[in-house]
């Protein structure tokens, strides 16, 4: 594709503006580690929420969403449960509050509040650091593969996708490493504004250029239906035959079973709390537990409508105008290329530059967040604690620069070895995070769970997830999740029961500070006998009610823009009504009941 001079100018101005802003703000981050990694706990909750939404509005994920919306239609609204997107609901309802009450810098350091400071706690911190670094490398590889595929179609120079990715990585890494959390948050707020304008514009273009009758002619029956049965029952024969092959390769024929598995995995994974990445760092960077909860709620509210306006808009444009071309090509079409193909064909000059700049912004947000979140685990929990405890503050920041650079290089190396976005996404969200769930669920909800149980549970899950591609290469990661969970759960429980419980003083301090619900019987009784007022902060029934309402609320936010773009007005107004009713319930049963501390 030959971009116009206007489009190229928009892109160049954007890249220069982002780099300049990031480097200008970076002077605020170099004072100490708290300023570098948590922005001194001074950033407003709404800025952290928009920043977090921008970090999740990634280009590789958007390419995947367009491909699944093309193939599965409205039913694709359920597929992000594989991540799961509703983990944000669990965070907003109670987990962000629990986590922020700790007043620590990293998830590994948080473990001291739960397990104390003995040998077992040190092993826990070590395994969390390993997990944080491994998952960061996976996210970087995920972003690398997505931006390379995207850039190779749009930019006029005849470079390979991997070379384009290397160039864009270099620009992003420079301001992220230099500026820390300050640069990440403030550049991501700017990037989100650009992305939202471009996304809404794409949705409007699709509404104006494609009629409901054209969509119906280009898709099989029930493509425009949100609900489903046990079988998928979408037959593309005669329209785009290769889509049937795509459905089979995805393993989605038994759609009902897949959604049930995603829900099962998603609930357990969400109860485990955020993995040690950018999501957790934003929570720890909030000014108070109340602001941490509000920040997590804002993510869903601001992200889904613009993102799915763009996803649905590019999908219907591709269906109607590129469908015959894809059918003519036969098999072998890369469905992850639908997004750049659609932009190439249908977005006008000027807006194309803005949209590409916006998608570059989304990519840079994802990379920036991943690169900023992981080094703190090594620097704070390994280097500072064991190697240089007496070093000056700037030394720790400089070591963070080096660790960030090494992570980027390693992630790029992994990205060069893997062939598709879907390969990386399925491994991260299906396998790697599957090994994380059991130990981290138990740490919140079972008093007898101890540091050795956490260490062996995490280690067993991590090793099992890394071995999964080698031992079970043909198994879908979603179906491997129960086995990963069982391995990690068995190691967690056995190690806990075979070693002494944590000291009563440690458990009592944790319970009084966090106020969790679950199997805390003896600890709860001791603490509430001395501090009975804490009982008012423990309300599992209310939390679970709000979680159910929140998941419905979030699904309606996903479905509503898709209904709007395909001009299904009955579905749109039903989704809007559900959004308003669930928002009202959450306002009175969640938001109004949040406490400052």
From TrEMBL:
One of its GO terms (molecular function) is proline:sodium symporter activity. Belongs to the sodium:solute symporter (SSF) (TC 2.A.21) family. This is Na+:solute symporter. Its main location: membrane. It is a multi-pass membrane protein. The lineage of its organism: Bacteria, Pseudomonadati, Pseudomonadota, Gammaproteobacteria, Alteromonadales. Keywords: Cell membrane, Ion transport, Membrane, Sodium, Sodium transport, Symport, Transmembrane, Transmembrane helix, Transport. It catalyses: L-proline(in) + Na(+)(in) = L-proline(out) + Na(+)(out). One of its GO terms (cellular component) is plasma membrane. It is found in: Cell membrane. One of its GO terms (biological process) is proline transport. InterPro entries: Na/Glc_symporter_sf, Na/solute_symporter, Sodium:Solute_Symporter.
């Amino acid at each position: 594709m030959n971009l116009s001079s206007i489009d190229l100018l928009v892109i160049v101005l954007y890249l220069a503006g982002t780099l300049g802003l990031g480097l200008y703000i970076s002077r605020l981050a170099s004072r100490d580690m708290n300023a570098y990694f948590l922005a001194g706990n001074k950033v407003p909750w709404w800025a952290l929420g928009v920043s977090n939404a921008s970090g999740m509005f990634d280009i590789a994920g958007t390419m995947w969403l367009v491909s699944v919306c093309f193939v599965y239609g409205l039913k694709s609204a359920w597929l992000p449960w594989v991540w799961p997107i509703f983990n944000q609901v669990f965070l907003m309802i109670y987990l962000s509050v629990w986590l922020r009450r700790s007043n620590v810098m990293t998830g590994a350091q948080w473990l001291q509040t739960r397990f104390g400071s003995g040998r077992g706690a040190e092993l826990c911190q070590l395994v969390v650091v390993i997990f944080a670094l491994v998952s960061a490398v996976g996210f970087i590889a995920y972003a690398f593969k997505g931006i390379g595929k995207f850039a190779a179609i749009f930019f006029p120079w005849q470079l390979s996708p991997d070379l384009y990715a290397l160039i864009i990585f270099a620009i992003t890494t420079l301001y992220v490493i230099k500026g820390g959390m300050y640069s990440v948050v403030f550049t991501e707020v700017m990037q989100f504004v650009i992305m939202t304008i471009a996304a809404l514009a794409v949705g409007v273009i699709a509404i104006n250029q494609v009629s409901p009758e054209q969509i119906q002619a280009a898709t099989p029956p029930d493509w425009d239906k949100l609900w489903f049965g046990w079988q998928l029952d979408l037959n593309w024969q005669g329209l785009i035959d290769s889509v049937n092959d795509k459905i089979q390769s995805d393993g989605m024929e038994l759609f009902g079973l897949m959604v049930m598995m995603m829900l099962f995995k998603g609930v357990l994974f969400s109860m485990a709390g955020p993995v040690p990445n950018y999501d957790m760092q934003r929570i720890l960077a909030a000014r108070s537990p109340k602001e941490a909860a509000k920040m997590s709620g804002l993510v869903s509210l601001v992200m889904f409508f613009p993102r799915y306006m763009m996803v649905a808009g590019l999908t219907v444009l591709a269906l109607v105008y590129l469908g015959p071309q894809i059918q003519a090509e036969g098999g072998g079409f890369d469905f992850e290329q639908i997004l750049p193909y659609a932009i190439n064909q249908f977005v006008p000059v000027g807006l194309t530059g803005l949209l590409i700049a916006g998608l570059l912004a989304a990519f840079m947000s994802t990379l920036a967040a991943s690169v900023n979140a992981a080094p703190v685990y090594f620097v704070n929990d390994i280097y500072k604690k064991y190697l240089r405890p007496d070093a000056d503050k700037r030394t720790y920041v400089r070591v963070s620069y080096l660790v960030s650079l090494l992570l980027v290089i390693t992630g790029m190396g992994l990205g060069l070895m893997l062939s598709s976005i879907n390969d990386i996404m399925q491994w991260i969200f299906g396998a790697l995070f599957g090994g994380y769930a059991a130990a981290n669920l138990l740490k919140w909800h079972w008093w007898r769970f101890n540091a050795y149980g956490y260490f062996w549970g995490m280690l067993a899950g991590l090793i099992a997830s890394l071995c999964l591609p080698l031992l079970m290469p043909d198994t879908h990661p979603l179906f491997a999740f129960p086995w990963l969970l069982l391995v990690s759960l068995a190691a967690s429980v056995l190690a806990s029961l075979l070693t002494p419980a944590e000291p009563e003083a440690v458990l009592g301090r944790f319970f009084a500070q966090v106020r969790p619900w679950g199997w805390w019987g003896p600890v709860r009784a001791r603490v509430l006998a001395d501090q009975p007022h804490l009982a008012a902060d423990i309300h599992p029934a209310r939390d679970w009610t709000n979680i159910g309402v929140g998941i419905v609320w979030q699904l309606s936010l996903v479905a509503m823009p898709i209904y709007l773009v395909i001009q299904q007005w009955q579905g749109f107004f039903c989704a809007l009504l559900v959004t308003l009713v669930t928002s009202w319930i959450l306002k009175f049963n969640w938001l109004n009941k949040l406490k400052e501390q």
